[in-house]
Amino acid sequence: MRILICDGPRSIGESAAHVLGGALRRRRRPTLGIATGSSPLEIYGAFARGIEIEDLDLSRLRAFALDEYVGIADDHPERYANVVDREVTTKLGLDPANVSVPDGASSDPDTAAERYERQIEDAGGIDAQILGVGTNGHIGFNEPGSPHDSRTRVVSLTAETRAANARFFDDISHVPTHAVTQGVGTIMGARTIVMVAQGEAKAEAVRHIIDGEVSTRWPGSILQRHPDVTIVLDEAAGHLLEFAGQYRTDAGYPA
Ligand code: GLP
Question: Minimal CA–CA distance to 217: which of 145, 168, 166?
Fold first, then answer.
């Protein structure tokens, strides 16, 4: 694991874009795994400013979203298909035909989830995966207890996740109770992974993921077993780490 503590949102986005750009540039038909949530927005902003996209043919980029709510109105601004369209497809000028989001509106979401898993396989897997993290350590919508070998599937959201995401809805009762998410095993299949986290609310999860035991209690801790992971944090998200001093990008240590 490579860990960077950056001094602000802009440098988080640019540091993450740098690692992702390196992983994608090597591929003839690159596949990028995209995440919603607030922290990854900095990455799309960096790409949109042209950071790290030289030698990267965006017209050939294939993108797969991590997750989607089940049972959310088609036109709801927080439906991840709409978030991805707004924040990624439009900002980066991607061909919408090359951008996929799990189908949360299907009458048979289990079969739709299996189909999504196969679509990723058929595209040759994910070259570079962007991840945010939940306050409970979830990655995608893989809540605590998610098996390490899980694949794309329908899951129930915990009360903690629904409360954290209530800020995007009129009322907590409107936050969906279920989602379709790439599994922990699906995410671990990506060749390169970049996780971003910002803010004090993420500090405990980040500490467990980086300094703790690998366990299903903190789903992101499995990343310790992946050969190519970079975690990019701000000071508030990273300050509880035992070796925080070594991860600060201005500390003069090798990253
Ligand atoms: C949602 C998403 C996750 C994301 C998390 C954190 O729950 N399903 O993929 O990591 O939010 O979002 P934020 O960065 O806004 O805190």
Answer: 145
Annotated catalytic residues are: 67, 136, 138, 143
All domains of the chain, ordered by start, with CATH? 2-240 (3.40.50.1360)
User: Which residues lie with the beta carbon below 6 Å from any ligand 1 atom?
Assistant: 35-39, 66-67, 132-134, 140-141, 161, 165
* Residue-wise pLDDT tens digits, 227-249: 999 999 999 999 999 999 999 97
Tell me the helix, strand and coil percentages in the chain, rounded to 5. Answer: 40, 20, 40
Whether 148 and 226 have beta carbons less than 8 Å apart is answered as: no
CA-closest candidate to residue 37, choices 134, 121, 174:
134
- Classify residue 198 by its DSSP letter: -
Name the one residue in this structure whose structure tokens are 């962007």.
Answer: 130
